[in-house]
C-alpha cells in the first residue's frame, strides 16, 4: 500500500466545512467548540502502517513481541529490528505504553500500547485502562516531541472491547488531555480506522466531543468559507457524503466475543479488507 502523507489526511475542521460529519441538532454537544482542536483531530480509514507521521500507536499485548491484528501488521512492515528493540523493553502492563523506533515503517516512532481485554475485566476497569492507553500514547508523543500521532481502535479486535464505547472513551480522553493544556505541542491526532464500521462510528460520535465551531457572520464568510486548493485536493478523494443518518453498526451486547486464539483469523480478515482499501479512502 502506498504511503499517505499528513497533508493528504483531512482535519476535522475540513470535514465539517465539507458537511461530511453528521450533526444531531436534538442532542447538542456539552463540550465547548474549539477551532484549534478541530484543526488537530483527523479521522481516516487506512492501514496505519502506511501513514507518514511522527508516531503510530500499536495495539500490543503485555509481551510486546508481536501478534495478530494491527500488531502483526506493524511488526511485518517495520522488519525484525523492531522485535529486537521490543525484547529489551521487558514487556508492558495493560493501560501503559512504551516507545520504539519505527525502522522500515514510514513513521519515525511506534508507541506500543497494551489495551484491556474486555472479557477479563469489569467494564469500569476496562474503561480506565483503555483511556489510560490513549493518555499514555499522547504523553509519550509529547515527551518525545512528536508532532503527529495516529491511533488505531485499540482493544476493539482480539480484545473484544465494544466498538461504540471504545470510540467514545478514546475521544473523551483525548478531549480531556487537550482541555488540560497538555497537547498544545501536538499538531495532529489521527484516529485511524481499519474497518468501515469503526469509521462510521467515529463520524457519528465525534461531534459530541469535538463539536463544530459556529459559522462566521455573513460579512466574514467570503474568506472563511473558501476552500483552498490543498483542501479541494483532499476533498476530491473523500467518499460521497452519507444520504441517510448513519446507525451504530454494532450493539455491544450482540458482539461476538473474540479470543486471542482467533487472532490469526482476524489478521486474515484484515488482510482481505486492506486489499480492498484504496489509498486515500477516508
Ligand atoms: N491499521 C489500522 N488498524 C488496524 C490494522 C491496520 N493495519 N489492522 C487491524 N486494525 P487488534 P486488540 C484494527 O485485534 O483488540 C494482537 O494479537 C482492527 O480492525 O489488532 O487491541 C496483539 O498482539 C481493530 O479495529 O488489537 C494482542 O495480543 C483494531 O486494529 C491483541 O491482538 C484493534 O484490533 C490486541 O488486541
Automatic annotation (TrEMBL):
SUPFAM superfamilies: Macro domain-like. CDD domains: Macro_OAADPr_deacetylase. This is A1pp-domain-containing protein. It holds the Pfam family Macro. Residues 28-210 form the Macro domain. Residues 245-261, 268-282 have a biased composition (Basic and acidic residues). It comes from Paraphaeosphaeria sporulosa. InterPro entries: Macro_dom, Macro_dom-like. Gene3D superfamilies: Leucine Aminopeptidase, subunit E, domain 1. Residues 213-282 are annotated as: Disordered.
Amino acid at each position: 500500500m502506498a504511503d499517505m502523507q499528513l497533508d493528504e489526511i483531512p482535519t476535522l475542521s475540513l470535514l465539517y466545512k465539507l458537511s461530511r460529519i453528521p450533526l444531531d441538532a436534538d442532542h447538542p454537544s456539552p463540550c465547548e467548540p474549539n477551532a484549534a482542536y478541530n484543526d488537530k483531530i483527523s479521522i481516516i480509514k487506512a492501514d496505519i502502517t502506511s501513514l507518514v507521521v511522527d508516531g503510530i500507536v500499536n495495539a500490543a499485548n503485555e509481551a510486546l513481541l508481536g501478534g495478530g491484528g494491527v500488531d502483526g501488521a506493524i511488526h511485518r512492515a517495520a522488519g525484525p529490528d523492531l522485535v529486537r528493540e521490543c525484547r529489551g523493553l521487558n514487556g508492558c502492563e495493560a493501560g501503559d505504553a512504551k516507545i520504539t523506533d519505527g525502522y522500515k515503517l514510514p513513521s519515525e516512532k511506534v508507541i506500543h500500547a497494551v489495551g484491556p481485554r474486555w472479557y477479563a475485566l469489569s467494564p469500569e476497569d476496562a474503561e480506565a485502562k483503555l483511556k489510560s492507553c490513549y493518555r499514555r500514547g499522547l504523553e509519550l508523543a509529547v515527551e518525545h516531541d512528536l508532532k503527529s500521532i495516529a491511533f488505531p481502535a485499540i482493544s476493539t479486535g482480539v480484545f473484544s472491547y465494544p466498538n461504540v464505547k471504545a470510540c467514545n472513551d478514546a475521544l473523551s480522553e483525548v478531549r480531556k488531555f487537550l482541555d488540560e493544556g497538555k497537547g498544545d505541542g501536538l499538531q495532529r491526532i489521527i484516529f485511524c480506522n481499519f474497518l468501515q464500521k469503526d469509521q462510521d462510528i467515529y463520524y457519528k460520535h465525534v461531534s459530541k466531543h469535538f463539536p463544530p465551531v459556529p459559522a462566521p457572520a455573513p460579512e466574514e464568510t467570503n474568506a472563511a468559507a473558501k476552500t483552498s486548493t490543498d483542501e479541494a485536493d483532499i476533498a476530491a478523494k473523500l467518499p460521497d457524503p452519507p444520504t441517510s443518518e448513519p446507525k451504530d453498526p454494532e450493539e455491544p451486547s450482540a458482539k461476538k466475543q473474540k479470543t486471542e486464539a482467533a487472532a490469526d483469523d482476524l489478521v486474515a480478515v484484515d488482510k482481505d479488507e486492506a486489499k480492498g482499501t484504496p489509498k486515500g479512502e477516508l
